[in-house]
Amino acid sequence: MSGLRWGVLGTANIARAQFLPAVRETGQRAVLVGGRDRDATAEFARAHGVERSVGGYAAVLEDPEVDAVYVPLPNPLHAEWTVAALRAGKAVLCEKPLCLDPPQVEQVLAVAEAAEQPLWEAFVFPFQAQHARLVELLTEGAIGDLREIVGSFHFEVSRPDDIRLSRETGGGALADVGCYPMRLAHELFQGTAESATATAVLGEQVEVDVSAVLSYPDDRRLLLTCGFRRSYDTTTVLLGTEGSLRLDNPYHPGRGTVLEVRRRGADPVLEKPTQDTRSFSAALRHIAAVLAGEQAPAHTALESALPVGRALHLAQTAVSAPPSSDLARPALAGDLP
């Protein structure tokens, strides 16, 4: 199904900048986009290579020419429209985070488990050649036992009306970009976060800059920083008992993005595994292969959305909880029930 037919809900910037170029790079088709403003949606379709447009989202789900649906709507709408798409018999790629809290994640996953087609949360990096090489190096023991991940995800938000700055639209640095290091840690630590401490710079409605420490089983930890107040940066370092592994960009690498291995007594080894121009391309090829019956679904929301949702909830709770009156330290969010 190299010509897999996609429907898109809404005209979000990430659809324009990331998803639709990857559809073109992989030879797939964007056949329909639905939006609240019919005229604006039609203009979006003309400008970005979508074959047809329609007013509203429901018509996209009802269209028999749509094989799979991409959901880049504001965070509070993810659950409703993901469930609707699954119940319409469509495969779904939903933007992260899948939902706003763990109970809502559980509800959506219950629908996904019974659905005819798979659900993916749009963390696309696990499908990329760079990530496959990273996992291979760790499996081979290139840096010994992985003990700690130090990860950042920052970029500047300059518009005061950006939905990332709105509590009503589920904004905040943690939900928008802090969840990426959490998704990486869940996979590489093969466990669920147990507790979190955090400090934050608060905007008018949401946190705009955060530093946090999340603990994982076997005394492993994720140290993350994320925010909207400085230039683009996703530098990540994996620290092991015998060395370290540094990634310029683990989440949206491009051609030339560097992966570097350092071990004591040896020269650094630099690799550039990424071949795709667009970071979504490998994920879209996988989805097409799954729907064609050529591959089994991998990295689905059923595997990771709930652990990542719980980690996100822990960090958000740590940010919003008041400091202890007895100890001068960040508030601790205990284990989720």
Q: Give helix and strand order, one letter per element, not per position.
A: EHEHEHEHEHEHEHEEEEEEEHHE
Q: Which value, in Å, is the CA radius of gyration?
A: 20 Å
Largest sheet strand order: 14-13-12-11-7-10-9-8-15
Q: Which runs of at least 5 residues are low in confidence (pLDDT < 50)?
A: 323-337
CATH structural fold name of the largest domain: Dihydrodipicolinate Reductase, domain 2
Helix content: 25-40%
State the distance separating the first and last CA atoms: 42 Å
Number of domains: 2
Give the full name of the CATH homologous superfamily of the largest domain: Dihydrodipicolinate Reductase, domain 2
What is the strand tally?
15
GO molecular function: nucleotide binding; oxidoreductase activity
Family: Belongs to the Gfo/Idh/MocA family.
Keywords: NAD, Oxidoreductase
Pfam family, one: GFO_IDH_MocA
What does this protein structure show overall?
The protein is α/β, with parallel strands linked by helices. The chain has 2 domains: 5-122, NAD(P)-binding Rossmann-like Domain (Rossmann fold), CATH 3.40.50; 125-276 and 311-320, 2-Layer Sandwich (Dihydrodipicolinate Reductase, domain 2). The protein is 33% helix and 24% strand. It contains 9 helices and 15 strands. The strands form 2 sheets. It has a 9-stranded mixed beta sheet. Strands 3-2-1-4-5-6 form a 6-stranded parallel beta sheet, with helices on both faces. β9 (207-216) and β10 form a beta hairpin. α4 (78-87) packs parallel to α5, α5 (102-114) packs antiparallel against α9 (301-320) and α7 crosses α9. It is globular and about 60 Å long. 47% of the residues are buried. Residues 323-337 have low confidence and may be disordered.
